[in-house]
Amino acid sequence: MKQYKVGVIGATGMVGQRFVSLLEGHPWFKLTAVAASGRSAGMRYEETAGPRWAMETPMPEEAKALVVKDAVADAEQIAAEADFVFSAVDMKKEEIRELEERYAKLECPVISNNSAHRWTPDVPMVIPELNPEHIAVIAAQRNRLGTNRGFIAVKSNCSIQSYVPALHPLREEFGLKTVLACTYQAISGAGKTFAAWPEMLDNVIPYIGGEEEKSEKEPLKIWGRVDNGAIVSADGVAITTQCIRVPVSDGHMAAVFAAFEKKPSVAQILERWQAFSGRPQELNLPTAPKQFLRYFTEDNRPQTKLDRDLERGMAVSIGRLRPDTQYDYKFVCLSHNTLRGAAGGGVLLAELLCAEGYIN
């Protein structure tokens, strides 16, 4: 596999920092450009991101001396220097849509962590193990944009990455009907640390703006199909959610209740979780977990602090599967929100796109 030159736009924020840290030592990708707002432009990355570095691992040496570019004003230069870019910018949605399309039209593919293009019909929103076939819609998007190389692909919201992967192997075979999911979400999902958000200490906030709508609708696009150059959302599944902010640094947990048209047995569910793998495992992509879904038999697992880093934070942990009095079954799930749910999921998506020939 060739080595790709990679840029990160929005590199100074928490997800941008995570992208930068994940690119250190990556076998396929080399960080060559970092960009942020005009306030940071012209400074060395260490100089502007160092004082607010939020990762547990040190800033990569290869990133420290890179001169930060203006993500907007220097777009042409960045697009010329990078084979593709990761987007983690903090801007208004309309501004993000315009900026990402600008990079795509400059023939620079964009793998976005942002929500701005998740509902653009010809932009694939991909959890690589679940719906890799959706990247086929890129041909229609390129036709609309008038590009040869450029396109936009997005990852889904971090909240659904905990529970949707567990439902996916059961959905079609057993006819998933209704889902209730209550998510308990870490403060890093808001781009915060406890030092920056002391109000979260010893506190729970029962509201995360826009999160419940995303959690209820995005799974239907993931489970949809490509039809006539657009992704058509699935129907037949009703999802309701509550999303709650809890005093945890990293890791989103979900309490899930599910009902099926053909109720499976506990043994059938466990067998399908254990056996499930996807295109990333088939291709042996560098960031792919070996065992995507891991079931814990202990009553008190998974636990956020113990299990969020399973398989370098790229696996989904499941536990407490049992019958329910109102739904068929209930269980809990856990995923690392800034790894599987954000930058790690973006890197895995980029690996998939490279392996399948969409970035060349």
Structural notes for this entry:
The structure is a single chain. With 360 residues, this protein is α/β, with parallel strands linked by helices. It folds into two domains: 167 residues, NAD(P)-binding Rossmann-like Domain (Rossmann fold, 3-Layer(aba) Sandwich), CATH 3.40.50; 177 residues, Dihydrodipicolinate Reductase, domain 2 (2-Layer Sandwich). 32% of the residues lie in helices and 22% in strands. It has 13 helices and 14 strands. The strands form three sheets. A six-stranded parallel sheet has the order 3-2-1-4-5-6, with helices on both faces. The radius of gyration is 20 Å and the shape is globular. The mean pLDDT is 97.
SSE topology:
Blueprint: E1 4-9, H1 14-23, E2 29-36, H2 45-49, H3 61-64, E3 69-70, H4 75-81, E4 84-87, H5 93-105, E5 110-112, H6 138-145, E6 152-154, H7 160-174, E7 176-185, H8 211-222, E8 225-227, E9 230-232, E10 238-245, E11 252-260, H9 266-275, H10 279-283, E12 293-296, H11 304-307, H12 310-313, E13 316-323, E14 329-335, H13 339-355
Parallel strand pairs: 1-2, 1-4, 2-3, 4-5, 5-6, 7-10, 12-13
Antiparallel strand pairs: 7-11, 8-9, 11-14, 13-14
